[in-house]
Amino acid sequence: GSPRRLLLISNSTLHGGGYLGHCQQHIQSFLGQKVKRVLFIPYALHDRDAYARTAREKFESLGYGLDSIHESCDPVEAVRKSEAIFIGGGNTFRLLKALYDNCLIHEIRKRVLEDGIPYMGSSAGTNVATVSINTTNDMPIVYPPSLQALGLVPFNINPHYLDPDIKRTHMGETREERIRQYHEEPNTPPVLGLREGTMLLVEGDKATLQGVTGARLFLRGKKPTEHEPGTDFSFLLTDSNPLNP
């Protein structure tokens, strides 16, 4: 079995709460007492200094030190020495481009999938943990060399998943329609729509939905299905997913 440990959070801020407030107990349970310092990757936002200050304040309040990779003169070495990695949200294209530009794709994959250090992502940081960023909600403000991401799990996620609002007159495509368009392309993996307040905990070959709002699962050629917190999604971790024609 894989030693990977992932906490993939849909959003960093939930309405009415502060930064990572809705999931701070999940974070403490996930990181435990062995981890002393977290390596933060703020590449998804332009103002990395301000972002690092926000993250540092939160993690210090939870009992963890935080080092921001943008302050390191050698980002690759920072990943190699890290005890745990947290990639925050922002623009997914900007984030992925910076990961490629700094030669971090292979290094992060190795640390997480081979060495077993904990990986946390929120929003864009969750997007890049998956097969590709094809199912992000973000605008392509920069051009990464590839849409292929870290591939820590063999499926895609759509963070901040929104259900259609039947009262609205807006006639643009719903999130569900956009994911269906993605699945019209051949050999596209499952997409897990994570609503705000929801996260996926991956421990080795086991994946469990956590949080408060549930998720919607999209499989190519099948009707989407609704899932409550506590759902076992371990079957999504097998590359030869039997539910994905």
UniProtKB/TrEMBL annotation:
Q: Pfam families of this UniProt entry?
A: Peptidase_S51
Cellular-component GO terms for this entry: cytoplasm
- Could you say which enzyme class this protein belongs to? hydrolase
| Segments for region (Disordered) | 222-245
> GO MF terms on file?
dipeptidase activity; serine-type peptidase activity
The record's subcellular location field reads: Cytoplasm
Q: Which UniProt keywords apply?
A: Cytoplasm, Dipeptidase, Hydrolase, Protease, Serine protease
GO BP terms in the entry: proteolysis
Q: What is its EC number?
A: 3.4.13.21
**Family to which the UniProt record says this protein belongs:** Belongs to the peptidase S51 family.
The protein's name: dipeptidase E
| Species | Emberiza fucata
